[in-house]
Design goal:
The complex is a heterotetramer of chains A (320), B (291), C (322) and D (359). In chain B, 75% of the residues lie in helices and 0% in strands. Chain B is built from twelve helices and no strands. In chain B, 52% of the residues are buried. Chain D has a domain at 266-359. In chain D, the strands form two sheets. In chain D, strands 6-7-8-3-9-10-12-11 form an eight-stranded mixed sheet, sandwiched between helices. Chain D has a four-stranded antiparallel sheet with strand order 2-1-4-5. The model of chain D is unreliable at 343-359 (pLDDT under 50). Chains A and C meet through helix 2 and helix 4 of A and helix 9 and helix 10 of C.
Chain lengths: 320, 291, 322, 359
């Protein structure tokens, strides 16, 4: 049994302008201990997908269809009360800006202990010891144990966030741009730490990022998202080396490759689609320089180009 | 160029008005204000009433066909008094607010923009105006200057700017840090230019929506001053009516028609301003109030 | 919070107090009416007597010297003599202070408790009818003149229903058998004035609590708390409220000036023998030393309250360092 | 490509031992007791120069002083020491005429297109503002014509559809184009571009970078390109300077960030770059974070975190010195690392003439 299976997930937002189809028919799955990267431009539905898995959508958002199976149980069908028991024990999250993700008026250790006390039968003393052990694990000095979030540096806060995410030994951890606001060096440290802990504890991970190069070294699978849909999905090596969807191909060209030739990067002309009234056919068709007639009228289905590697393009095979 | 620009400005204004008309709250606020403006400026022309005419009816006569809202302690028509009193509240509400807004904005923006010693000094003065007992201060100033309507306007204006100044300062501090201010500096703009063209337009929407709330305070202040006997005796006002009602013992004889209508009018007028202020805030400062 | 923060706030409060003193001193210097003739209250006083009084009170000295003398006397606790009561100002104020404190405290506590509760309910149930009702109530009470509410309450509860006594703090002419009787009588008299005062300020608190809580509820750390599996109640009580109540503290302190204004009106309407009524009387009698004294005491109280709020803020918000 | 006309200095910008120190807010107690104030040495002795038409990247982590350096060159912060020369004259020159010229010839492009354009101004006002503010009288028609020209240069075509819009009606990429148009309108000789693409999606970054390059080609504009992104610095610049705690650690051709660097700090930065390679190389990441620039360590400021630290490093502060053609490093043992990095072979760099040590 797979650890996580997301099937035909649809998440819509009800806004004044109309229904925003932020996530529209997204499917992917994750084995135990595996890491998947969700990449794409801003507004393509990466974060909404993750928040749907955790059932943490804002008030305007709702899951309009599909299943989210974690350990075979459908999360999308559970009540808030039932969900609470699974939260953090089964799946936890590390947000982008840890400054805002930690409560400013509560000591960091207290915030971690809170999660522990909620899900496990522990005394205060035991919880404190566990927090210290977690601090040690993420390489935060135990002298900071009684500090507030603002007394931590950016990198430390993100480490504390990771310690908190690990507290109850979840099977799945979601990283929503966990290193975006950090310096290169700290970013590398945090990613290395996450990788190490993941291997140690056998956790699966959903890593959300807009930076393709982060995915390469940190994930097993990658799902490239565009306009609320998965454009291409597969093992990292295959997708990055042999991209079959025009969007993936263009996106790769937008990043400089410091190990290769010095070649100017290229933009993708046009704009991401409006998700209230998405274009007919393939959502990328208005920006695609290889679009043909069928692309503007028929929505492409996922096509398998090699084992485990699929792309939502009518001409995926031609491009591989 | 100028024409196209005017057109664009017009488009922006139209958007604002449309947004204003979309919100129920602002519609209610507008309706209330329009009603009172008509009442204050057109009402007296249509409704025959003489403020000096005592004994038109019996003393404290309950509502009847002749006197829809009864009579006061001097036998005057309460409805007539009510209509004639509307003007005072409106004038004070608008003018005192204007004074308060100008002082508060100037103090707040200079304080926030220049910082340092200027800021420290201006803020301590602002603090002093915040802690000085505000109603008594107004009472004393009114006693000092004499309680004509214009004096009351000035008194309310100069005592109520401290909150606006604080708000303007806070907003200036945040606007000042934005890169477009540095951009203006980098192309050689001076302090006055930056304050006028960059800071003020960005501080103003917040001040403006707050000011509509300040006008509520101004109206209540005028009413209270009049009630406490510091009003302009020559001008009928709702506060003055309540003053006479209280002094004449209308309360102890249960002459509701004398003291309930002015109070209800005050509440409605203040609500009108508050609703409008709230809607302005929602439209002008969407980023500040996320929902 | 640290000593740095504390020192800074003490320094700020001291400067504010000094500015208040200056305003207070010169405001009453320019008031109409010659203080000398006010003191003499004797139309037949001859010029030499006038000169004598002038030099006795120091009116012939330059303003700055007079101001220095004024400050020196203040430090000694000498607030001057009341023209009207012919007693030291400080004694007159002292005899009335208790009544106002009882009234203000009772009202403030009810208003804070109720305001926070209503604001919380409205924020949690945003968009529902309860929210609309609370918002409506808050707005209407906010728009109400305090004295008017007092009048309506008197007319309805005292005159119409006869439930409460209308005037004063105690029933006059009654000798109380014991402390308990006296307290019951006080409570009866206190009820309406305190409720009036509380009602007019509760709206402001509840609206601020509501918007502050709504702001906090959209923060990331609230999502974190939800993700951790905390129940909705715990998310709100443990994570949202501690952050949302911070602005309330400042507002309460600033609001004290408005409390005074409210107390003045309530005391006038209910004939409550407190500072507010005293101030009103002093104003009518043009008793400037008394007015000046009241101003100073009240300002001092507000500065003190603001200082206390700053300290509390520093204690509740660990981010505060300066 | 590089033309030095008569009477022009070879370098458009010359920065010599530039220092910018900030006093940090003194505590109230310290003020009372008259204690010494603490200073942040944001920029602490930076020397480099920029040739006409050259793009120099200033790379560093937050707190390295790269942005402050850029702002000091534009005289937007007061310098505490050293000198920044523009066209041979000090930028803190008080001469009015010179200042007007300077504000025209040297421009800045900011990081955040959501914050660098006043939301209350229309695009036409934003773009033409530099012209209106310089005091010369331009008639309306000329203003408009030049605004249109600038917008079209920046790829906002047809310009008429953008003129009377407000910034919030444009996308992030479009806003940054507007910022470039506003800089372009004065045909500046020098632009400080402070992280001009870091807030933009990868899919539009290239447009902005291409525009900058295009402006250099048409106007021979020089750039100081401030960035934290090594791969962007490598991509766009002729030379790269790597800063750490207010000092330049290494400066040389763009190749130094692609691997030919010699300074241990540069090496660590390059190693920390995420790559698309599936199996990451074994790499030694630096421990901890950049310390605060209030208390600098003695000797080399990188020594506490350096994995190659030796006794000399904690005693003596290394000066920036020439280690190869146009390649300078501030490390006592630079030559040693040079031989290890295999970057010793001086390949002539494309498009760069005369890469001499005289930097």
């Amino acid at each position: 049994m797979k650890l996580l299976e997301v099937r035909n997930l649809k998440t819509y937002f009800d806004t004044r302008e109309g229904v925003v189809r932020a996530v529209d028919d997204v499917s992917f799955s994750l084995e135990k201990g595996e890491a998947i990267g969700l990449v794409g431009e801003s507004g393509c539905g990466k974060t909404t997908t993750a928040l749907s898995v955790l059932q943490l959508l804002p008030k305007e958002g709702r899951i309009a269809g599909g299943e989210i199976l974690l350990n075979g149980e459908d999360f999308a069908a559970k009540s808030e009360e039932e969900l609470r028991k699974h939260r953090w024990r089964d799946v936890s999250i590390v947000f982008q800006g840890a400054m805002n993700a930690l409560n400013p008026v509560m000591k960091v250790s207290r915030q971690i202990a809170e999660a522990l006390l909620l899900h496990e039968e522990l005394t205060e003393e035991e919880a404190r010891r566990r927090v210290l052990a977690l601090f040690d694990l993420v390489e935060i000095s135990s002298s900071l144990v009684d500090c507030y979030p603002h007394e931590f540096s950016g990198g430390m806060r993100q480490r504390a966030m990771i310690a908190m995410a690990l507290a109850c030994g979840p099977k799945l951890i979601v990283g929503d741009e966990p290193t975006t606001a950090l310096d290169v060096m700290v970013q590398a440290q945090i990613l290395a730490l996450l990788g190490k802990l993941r291997r140690e504890f056998g956790m699966a991970m959903i890593l959300i990022t807009h930076d393709l190069s982060i995915v390469g070294a940190n994930c097993d699978q990658v799902a490239v998202m565009y306009g609320g849909k998965v454009a291409e999905i597969g093992p990292v090596g295959k997708v990055l080396r042999n991209p079959c969807h025009p969007y993936t191909q263009r996106l790769l060209k937008a990043f400089p490759d410091i190990r290769g030739e010095r070649e100017m990067v290229q933009s993708i002309p046009g704009f991401p689609p409006n998700l209230v009234t998405p274009p007919p056919g393939c959502r990328f068709s208005p920006r695609c320089d290889a679009a043909r007639e069928i692309c503007f009228s028929r929505e492409p289905a996922m096509r398998c180009v090699e084992p485990g590697h699929e792309a939502a393009c009518h001409f995926a095979e031609e491009r591989s | 160029m100028e024409n196209a620009k005017k057109l664009a400005l017009h488009r922006k204004r139209k958007q604002f008005v449309e947004a204003l008309f979309r919100s129920k709250m602002s519609l209610v606020g507008l309706a209330i204000l329009v009603f009172f403006v008509l009442l204050a400026f057109v009402g007296p022309l249509l409704y025959d009433y003489d403020h000096q005419e005592y004994g038109a009816g019996e003393m404290l006569e309950p509502p009847s066909k002749a006197f829809l809202l009864g009579t006061d302690d001097l036998g005057r028509d309460v409805l007539g008094e009510l209509i004639h009193g509307a003007k005072t509240s409106l004038i004070v509400g608008v003018l005192a607010t204007l004074i308060s807004m100008v002082i508060g904005t100037v103090v707040g923006i200079s304080s926030g923009y220049f910082g340092g010693r200027i800021d420290a000094f201006l803020m301590r003065v602002t603090d002093a105006f915040l802690v000085l007992p505000w109603l008594p201060l107004m009472l004393v100033l009114a006693a000092l200057l004499g309680s004509s309507l214009w004096n009351i306007v000035v008194v309310i204006g100069v005592t109520s700017w401290a909150g606006t100044a604080r708000l303007a300062r806070a907003q200036t501090l945040s606007v000042k840090e934005r890169q477009f201010v540095e951009r203006a500096r980098s192309i050689g703009a001076g302090h006055v230019y930056i304050m006028r063209k960059k800071i003020l337009p960005n501080v103003f929407p917040l001040i403006f929506s707050n000011t509509v709330l300040v006008s509520a305070v101004a109206i209540l202040s005028e009413t209270t001053l009049s009630f406490l006997g510091m009003g302009d005796v020559l001008r009928p006002s709702w506060g003055m009516m309540l003053h006479y009602a209280f002094e004449a013992g209308a309360v102890s004889v249960g002459a509701y028609w004398f003291f309930v209508p002015p109070g209800v009018c005050i509440i409605l007028l203040v609500l009108g301003f508050a609703f409008l202020g709230h809607s302005f805030d929602e439209i002008l400062n969407p980023a500040l109030r996320r929902r | 919070m640290n000593s740095e923060y504390l020192l800074r706030k003490i320094f700020h409060s001291a400067i504010t107090l000094f500015i208040v003193l200056i305003i207070n001193y010169f405001l009453f210097r320019i008031m109409p009416g010659d203080p000398v003739s006010m003191i003499m209250r004797n139309p037949n006083a001859n010029p030499s007597m006038l000169a004598q009084v002038k030099s006795l009170y120091g009116f012939d000295k330059p303003q700055l010297v007079q101001f220095a003398v004024y400050l020196r006397e203040l430090v000694k606790g000498n607030f001057g003599m009341s023209f009207f009561y012919r007693q030291p100002v400080i004694d007159v104020i002292g005899s009335r202070l208790f009544a106002t404190l009882v009234l203000a405290f009772a009202a403030e506590i009810v208003a804070i408790f109720l305001g926070i509760l209503l604001g919380k309910i409205a924020a949690v149930r945003r968009g529902e009818p309860v929210d609309a009702a609370i918002l409506g109530f808050s707005l209407v009470t906010y728009a109400m003149p305090t004295f008017w509410l007092g009048i309506v309450f008197i007319a309805f509860f005292c005159v119409h229903l006869g439930l409460f006594p209308t005037v004063g703090m105690y029933t006059s002419g009654v000798t109380f058998a014991g402390f308990a009787d006296k307290a019951v009588d006080l409570a009866k008299h206190l009820f309406l004035p305190a409720v009036t005062l509380a009602v007019v300020i509760v709206g402001g608190y509840s609206m601020i609590m509501r918007s502050s809580l709504l702001d906090v509820l959209s923060e990331d750390y609230i999502t974190t708390a939800r993700a951790k599996g905390l129940s909705r109640r715990d998310v709100i009580n443990r994570h949202a409220v501690p952050n949302a109540r911070l602005p309330i503290i400042t507002i309460i302190a600033i609001n004290l000036g408005f409390m005074i204004a409210g107390a003045l009106q309530v005391e006038t309407v209910f004939s409550w023998p407190g500072i507010g009524r005293l101030m009103y009387e002093a104003l009518k009698a043009r008793d400037y030393p008394l007015l000046q004294g009241i101003f100073l005491i009240v300002s001092f109280c507000v500065i003190l309250a603001n200082f206390a709020a700053d300290i509390m803020y520093g204690y509740l918000d660990p981010r505060i360092r300066y | 490509m590089k033309q030095v006309r008569e009477g022009m200095t070879e370098h458009i910008v010359d920065v010599r031992d530039l220092k910018v120190h900030f006093e940090i807010r003194r505590s109230f107690l310290d003020t009372l007791l008259g204690r010494n104030k603490a200073t942040v040495k944001a920029v602490d002795g930076v020397t480099f120069s920029l040739r006409r038409g050259e793009i120099l990247s200033l790379v560093g982590e937050s707190g390295s002083g790269k942005t402050t350096t850029g702002r000091a060159i534009l005289n937007l912060v007061a310098k505490s020491g050293g000198e920044a020369l523009f066209d041979g004259a000090s930028v803190s020159n008080r001469d009015r005429e010179w200042n007007r010229m300077f504000r025209k010839k040297a421009q800045m492009i900011f990081q955040d297109p959501y914050q660098s354009l006043n939301p209350k101004d229309m695009i036409v006002d934003i773009v033409s503002e530099p012209l209106r503010i310089d005091g010369d009288h331009h008639d309306q028609e000329e203003l408009l014509a030049r605004t249109v020209e600038a917008l079209e240069f920046a790829g906002l075509k047809p310009a008429e559809t953008y003129l009377y819009k407000y910034p919030n009606e444009l996308s992030g990429g479009q806003r940054q184009r507007v910022a470039i148009a506003a800089a372009f309108i004065l045909s500046p000789d020098f632009i400080v571009a402070d992280e001009p693409v870091s807030m933009l999606d990868a899919s539009v970054r290239a447009d902005i970078l291409n525009l900058m390059v295009k402006m250099r080609e048409t106007k021979n504009t020089s750039y100081l390109f401030i960035t934290h992104d090594l791969s962007l610095a490598w991509l766009i610049s002729d030379r790269v300077a790597i800063m750490y705690l207010g000092k330049i650690m290494e400066i040389g051709s763009h190749r130094i960030v692609a691997g030919s660097c010699v300074h241990p700090y540069s090496r660590a930065l390059v190693d920390a770059l995420p790559t698309m390679e599936e199996k990451p190389r074994e790499r030694a990441l630096l421990k901890g974070e950049t310390p605060s620039p209030v208390k600098l360590p003695p000797g080399c400021r990188f020594s506490p975190r350096c994995s190659h630290v030796r006794p000399q490093c904690t005693r003596e502060e290394p000066e920036l010195r020439c280690v190869g053609e146009g390649h300078w490093a501030a490390c006592h043992f630079a030559e040693e690392f040079l031989s290890k990095s295999g970057a010793g072979d001086p390949v002539p760099l494309q498009g760069e003439e005369n890469p001499s040590c005289a930097q």
